[in-house]
Structure formats: C-alpha cells, structure tokens
Amino acid sequence: MYDLVVVGGGPAGSSAAIAAARAGLSVVVLEKGERNRDKYCGGGISVLTQNSLRELGAAEALETFENYAEGHVLVLPGEKVLVDAIPGLGYGLVRRSVFDAKLRELAESYGATVKHGFEASSITVDGDKVVVRSRKGEVVEGRYAVVATGAGNFPERALGFPPLRPENLGHCWGTEAEYPVSAEVERWRHEYGFTPIFLMFGFVTYGYMWVFPKRNHMNVGMGTTLAESARYGRLHLEGFARGLELARRMGILSEPGRLRVDRSWLIPGKPRAVTYSQERRVLLAGDAAGFVHPLTGEGISGAVRSGRLAAETVKQALDKEDPGLLKEYEAKWWADFGEDAYAYGLKLTRLMYSSPALQRLGLSMVFSDEEASRLLSMLLYRADRSASRRLYEYLLKHFPELLLKQPFAGKKRDYSKKRLKAG
Ligand SMILES: Cc1cc2nc3c(=O)[nH]c(=O)nc-3n(C[C@H](O)[C@H](O)[C@H](O)COP(=O)(O)OP(=O)(O)OC[C@H]3O[C@@H](n4cnc5c(N)ncnc54)[C@H](O)[C@@H]3O)c2cc1C
Questions:
Q1: pLDDT at 233
Q2: CA of 33, closest atom in ligand 1
C-alpha cells in the first residue's frame, strides 16, 4: 500500500508526486494516457510557474522551453496596440506533451512510481485506506489520494464533489500546428526588439485570442465562457478566421492558412465549492479543483502550487495520523494564490469581461496609462503574487483620470523600450 495515490499525471499530479516523494512518502501516479500524452493548452509557462518549479526541485522541466517570450503585444479592436516588456520577466513556451512527460520523469527520478495507461474509474474508502480501481479492473491502494484529473467531471462522478458550475467554466479552441516559426520570430524581433506573445481582443466575447510561438509549431487559439461558446459557436469560428486575417494584415502571421481549429477543451474559471474530503481521504489539485486564474486562463502555476500544497497536507496528516488535518488544505491554497486570484481576479474579470464595451473601455484605460499597463504585465506574467489586487485597486482609485485619458491612448503604445532601457 502506498502512502499517497495520485490520480492524473498532468502538472498538478506530477508536482504532488514530486513533493511527496521528496518528503519521503511512497507515492504512485496513475495516468490514463501514454508517456507522450498531449493536453490542449497554450503551453505558456509564467514567471510564477517557473519559480514554483524551481522551489519544487523540478527546475529541469524548464529545459523543455522551445521558445521564450520576453514581452507581449496586445491588440485591441481598431488595431490599437500595446507593446510591453519588463526586463528579466517572460513566458517560457512548451509543448505540453514534452513538458508533462518531463515532470512525470522527474517524479520517477525522486522515487515515485508512474503507471501509464491506468484510467481510474472509481475511488472508494475501506477503513483507513483509499482503493482506486481502473476501467480494466486493476486495483491500487493508498492511505490518501490526490485527484488531479484536470477539468473533466471525475471528482463529481467518482467522489460526489460539487461540480464545476457551467457558468464558471470556459471553453477554448484552436490549434498547435507545424509552422515556420523562426522566420516570424526574426521579423517580430526586428519590429519590437524582442520575442513577444500576442493577445488579441474583440474577436470573441468575454475572452481573447492568442498567438504563442513554439520551436516548429505555432499555437493559436481563443477562449470564452462555455455558455457563450454554446450560444455563438459558429460566430466564434468566424471570429477565429477574422483574427487570423487581422494578424496577417498586421504582420503578426504571414501564413495564417496553415492554422485551422482542430481541438478544443474546457478551462475552469473558479474553484469548486469544496476541494477536500476528510471522509474520502482525498484532496483535489489543479484544474480538478478549478485553480485557473479567471482573467488570463493561466492554470499551470495553480496546478504546480496546489499539487505541492496537497502533498504537504497529506504528509502532515500521515505524520500526526489525523485525517482531520486535510481541512487545512483550503486555508493553505487560499493564502498562497486563492485570495489574489478569486477575491480580486474575479472582480477584475467582471470589470473587464462583463460586456464587449466594458472590455474595450477597461483595456483602453490600461493602454493609456504606464503604471496600469505595468501592473497588467505583472499579472500576465504572474510575476507579483498580489498583482490582481494591485491592478484592481489601481483601476478603481484612478478611474476618473483613466476614463478621461483613455480616448487619447493613440494607435500604438510602446512601454517596452523605456522599460528595457531602464532595466
Ligand atoms: C486551450 C487552453 C490553453 C491554455 N493555456 C495555458 C497557458 O498558456 N498557460 C497556463 O499556465 N495555463 C494554460 N491553460 C490551463 C492549463 O492547461 C491547465 O490549468 C493545466 O493543464 C492544469 O493542470 P492539471 O494537472 O490540473 O490538469 P491536466 O493538465 O488536464 O492533467 C490531468 C491529467 O489527468 C489525466 N487523467 C484524467 N482523468 C483520469 C483518470 N480517470 N485516470 C487517470 N488519469 C486521468 C489526464 O490524462 C491528464 O494527464 C490552458 C488551458 C486551455 C484549455
């Protein structure tokens, strides 16, 4: 019997396994996919994720970066453009099949067992142990379980957790297609002075479109709420095509014809009402718990951090032989990343995404003001642990002057040159 059974071998599950193995627990990861399983994702590794991986003892996962964006270009309707970069901060860009496999390998190198091709179908409690059964009838037992099965409905189906509510779910679609990336990157570097990622607004309600360069693949997608997606599916596909066309006109993508929507997936925008069960001896981590930043959709940092916190909580429960200690998990994740993301991030989301008009207004206000744009950058990179609160409070405090300034924001704002020089 293992001390800890981790169900799901994405970033959350592997991080839980690494932290548990390093703390001396016997741990097994049950992953339904094969070693090279892919997860549909932008593959943007934020500053918070980079730092969290280093703290976890998984810095080697950063070696899977295929590209590195030192800044970003935001495009608003009317082709208003904001260019920004903050010295020393940026996004690593990975292919998830490679990144996730590396994390599972690292978990193995610390002593965890990883079973690929194990699709958990049920989790039951038998006295003081959890029993996980696969679809094929295999059985694995442990003292506790961390469920890190992503944004699907496994926690409610197998364990009776309250569901991720449809109004709190997002939906993304796009592609990661083979593409001559280096030629584009060379042109971008010439135009902006660094390699950016691109975020484009106005082609989808309540969300955005992104362009993320990998080594030989371009990842382009867009996301909105699940409800909007169900209502306007066809319009959103047209929006994707219009976004590509604008990207071509603006010199962002010279071969948009290579990029067609071929995948889609869900993304949570708010945690479940409950993320642990003492009776079932289980904790939820990553997307299974709903830990994605609601404004940006960045979820890998929440996966890595919650995986580690879950493992630490299990270790305490084992050490004290007290499953009652599992309840401390919720206070831990709330203090670590929850308050900033879900008290303030959700307020920002309501401010920015309640209607297309508000989104335009909010972003124009940010574009027109150097400090607001710096705070947005810190939030996009997740480089400041209270970035959502700081941006929200700044926008509220300076609302009247930003409102007056925003119509004069001009076509292009380039804060990056000044910041790169100062840095
Ligand atoms: C289109 C899109 C773009 C995104 N872009 C970004 C981005 O650029 N940066 C960022 O930080 N975040 C991004 N996110 C969010 C990010 O992908 C997730 O937050 C992250 O993958 C969560 O990690 P996880 O380990 O919790 O879940 P997952 O990565 O979904 O991993 C879950 C694992 O569990 C396995 N599993 C599922 N069910 C079972 C079962 N029954 N038994 C055994 N194994 C099972 C799966 O095979 C999978 O390997 C994006 C999301 C989407 C949808």
A1: 75
A2: 47
CA 47 to chain centre: 12
**Mean of pLDDT over the chain:** 94
Count of CA atoms in the C-beta half-sphere (13 A) of 315 = 18
User: What residue spans define the domains of the chain?
Assistant: 2-68+91-165+272-343, 167-268, 350-422
Beta strands in 252-353 (DSSP E): 263-268, 276-277, 282-284
Q: What is the pLDDT of residues 258-282, one digit of tens each?
A: 999 999 999 999 999 999 999 999 9
Round to whole Å and give the CA distance between 15 and 58: 8
Q: What is the mean pLDDT of residues 131-151?
A: 97
Angle among Cα 39, 40, 41 to the nearest 5 degrees reads 105
Ligand 1 pocket residue status of 140, Cβ below 6 Å: no
How far is residue 276's CA from residue 283's CA, in Å, rounded to a whole number? Answer: 4
Ligand 1 site, residue 267, Cβ cutoff 6 A = yes
Atom of ligand 1 nearest to the CA of 291: 19
Kindly state which CATH superfamily the domain 2-68+91-165+272-343 is placed in: FAD/NAD(P)-binding domain (3.50.50.60)
Q: Ligand 1 centre and the CA of 262: distance in Å?
A: 17
234, pLDDT greater than 80 = no
CB of residue 31 inside a 6 A radius of ligand 1 = yes
With contact defined as beta carbons under 8 Å apart, do 311 and 39 qualify?
no
Q: pLDDT-derived band of residue 411, with 50, 70 and 90 as boundaries? A: confident
Substitution candidate for ligand 1 out of 6, 28, 29, 32 with most atoms within 8 A of CB: 32
